[in-house]
Amino acid sequence: MKRTGYITFILFWCLTVQKCWAQSDYVITPLTLNTKYTNEIFAIHYGNGVIYSSDRRTNVLVNRVDSTDQPLFHLFFVPAKDTIRWGIPRLLSKNIPINAHQGPCTVSADGQEIYFTANNESGGRIYSARKSGNEWINVQPFQYNRPNSITTHPSLSSDGKQLFFASDMPGGFGGFDIYVCEWTPRGWGPPKNLGPEVNTPENELYPFIQENGVLYFSSTAHGSMGGMDIFSVREVNDEWGLRQRLDEPINSTGDDISYTATDADGTKGYIVSNRDGKTFNLFSFKSLFPVFPDCQEQIENYYEYEFEERMGVVMDTTTLKLIWDMGDGTVKYGEYVEHTYASTGQYTIYINVVDTLTGEIEKQVARYVLDVLDEEQPYITADETVNAGTSVSFDASKTYLPDLDIDEYYWIFGDGTNAKGIRAEHIYAAPGVYRVRLGVIGKSKRTGEPEKVCVFRDIIVE
Question: pTM of the full predicted structure?
Answer without folding.
Answer: 0.77
